[in-house]
Q: What sequence folds into this?
């Protein structure tokens, strides 16, 4: 991490921690939520584009750079990040917001819409890993058998993904082989080709944030998610997938598309799971088009 990587970033104190963020522009808040191997730097191609029409804000989640790192044995429960997000929005006067999330960050946005609908104006979700709609993490054999009967394509995709990525990833982390763990995870979520094409600066960002991935894999804190939770969301949602993304992530997105009451979907050509970096112009166009179509829509419900 270079000394200038986060130069000019602001900070907000929420829930006993400090979160770094950048913002650009004015208008309705559009808040970007990064995934497990990223920090606010992942959105550097979105802030200028979205900031021309909105108050675009990218923050680094708890334990992501440049924030304080996670302890070696600490847990990292997902719902803590949801509460951080909600507190952050209120602290910087950005609620209700258009939430734009990638991967884990997209799942957090979804959970925020379920648990705190008053802070969410719309959602743009890039392949949230919503496997709890089908199985626990780690999955129980009975759940997998039931899924094989009811949704065989989804079951096969999830089994292949978990066996080929998460099982060897767990072993690598337990052996202290962090470079190998990074390679396994990146190949599993991006594909070998997209990972090898990442610039060295982006691979360095992954290394900077590998400790949070390690905690999430070795001490998972993934909350349950039910079909009815997703059906309860009243915010308009844009689902964004990559043309080259792993089949498991596409099957999970298929299920969200079935359940969400107000939903659109777009595929980003030539891109995988980090589509907002791999084909930024197409993602920016999709985000801005969606937000414009939803401009002036009904406000979220008030807080209970």
A:
């Amino acid at each position: 991490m270079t000394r200038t990587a986060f130069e000019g970033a602001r900070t907000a104190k929420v829930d006993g921690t400090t979160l770094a963020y950048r913002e650009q522009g004015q208008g309705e808040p559009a808040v970007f939520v990064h995934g497990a191997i990223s920090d606010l730097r992942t959105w550097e191609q979105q802030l200028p584009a979205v900031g021309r029409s909105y108050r675009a804000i990218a923050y680094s989640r708890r334990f992501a750079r440049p924030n304080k790192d996670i302890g070696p044995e600490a847990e990292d429960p997902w719902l803590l990040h949801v509460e951080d997000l909600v507190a952050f929005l209120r602290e910087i006067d950005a609620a209700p917001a258009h939430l734009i999330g990638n991967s884990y960050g997209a799942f957090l946005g979804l959970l925020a819409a379920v648990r705190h609908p008053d802070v969410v104006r719309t959602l743009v979700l890039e392949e949230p890993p919503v496997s709890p709609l089908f199985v626990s993490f780690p999955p129980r054999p009975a759940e997998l058998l039931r899924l094989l009967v009811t949704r065989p394509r989804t079951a096969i995709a999830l089994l292949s993904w978990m066996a080929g990525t998460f099982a060897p990833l767990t072993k690598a982390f337990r052996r202290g082989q962090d470079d190998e763990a990074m390679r396994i995870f990146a190949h599993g979520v991006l594909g070998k080709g997209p990972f090898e094409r990442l610039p060295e600066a982006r691979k360095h960002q992954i290394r900077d944030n590998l400790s949070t991935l390690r905690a999430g894999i070795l001490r998972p804190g993934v909350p349950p998610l039910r079909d009815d939770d997703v059906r309860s969301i009243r915010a308009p949602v844009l689902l964004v997938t990559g043309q080259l993304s792993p089949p498991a992530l596409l099957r999970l997105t298929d299920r969200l598309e079935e359940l969400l009451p107000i939903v659109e979907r777009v595929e980003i050509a030539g891109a995988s799971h980090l589509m907002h970096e791999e084909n930024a112009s197409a993602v920016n166009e999709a985000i801005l088009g969606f937000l414009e179509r939803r401009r002036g829509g009904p406000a979220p419900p008030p807080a209970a």
In short: The chain is about 45% helix and 15% strand. The mean pLDDT is 94.
